[in-house]
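Worked problem 6 (solution included).
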Amino acid sequence: MFKAECRITPYLLRLFEGIATAGALVRSSRVQASVKVSLQRDAFARSVHSSTWIEGNLLSLAQVRAVADGKDLLVEEKQKTEVANCLEAMRLVLKNKNKPVTEKGLLDVHARMIKGLLASERIGKYRRIQNYIVDARNKVIFTPPPPGKVPGRMKSLFAWLKEEDLHPIIRAAIFHHEFLTIHPFVDGNGRVARAVGQWLLWEKGLDPLCSLGLDDFFAQDRPRYYDLIQQTRDMDGDFTHWVEYVAEGLARALEEVQDRIKEGSLRLQGISLTPKQEELLGMLEKKSAVGAAEIGKVMKVNRARVNQLISPLVRFGIVTREGAARAVRYRLSEK
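Solution. The predicted structure is:
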């Protein structure tokens, strides 16, 4: 089975303590539900923009937001597809965030991430060819294991994931790195590694609002991200510095979330919410999906009033409507 070493250094302990404290403050902040939804939507778009930009996608953050909102763009089709796929893959991860990460789940994420970009026999399937990792000058700097060893290496990694009782950040960081070392797919490895790394954090209870900024951290100094990946390979199984780097990124992401909450810099645009709408969003935040009848009963309003309260929230993409007629149910949008 895959083995990994990570020393619990004083610096890493300080980072873990800071992350735990900051996460608790974010969770306990008296943030209006509308502002929290806005923060998470913004963090989601930024995460997708950063993860695709790391791999060379040229769409701006504004363009990524436009794709997320279903708007058409006059840009290169491949660039738009990469972003649209990453959005879909991350939505899949968010949908399953409370479930354990499995090998099938990872393959499903890859299938969403690379749809339409590779031949069908390579989508959601491990590679059958040798690949290489090159630097900016196209010089080979690392050769992943041969294709015949990929399935075994991945099964060993998932066995480690299931058996090792580690701090969630250590677990997610090491999985992220070993996955990139195996490089199991023909394309999409980096995007899948970062998406599944988020999933591993959410699986253990970390709020997406507190972790989605991690990809921004990686993107802000892309050379350092790549350098530390390679340096860790050279450390022969010692992941300490890599885990410290990932923890540093999470700490930075949480600081930015706290700053945005304090400054109130994010506000819903184009809609001013009433106290009843805030109450409704708070209700949806606690439940996965709610019908109009239940909303009316809890809030003590009739069906017409429920429709009046929720229609603007659906129109602005804050709430998603599912089903038809009296089977309609509402949930907070996950984008």
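Discussion: The domain at 275-332 is CATH 1.10.10.10 (Arc Repressor Mutant, subunit A).
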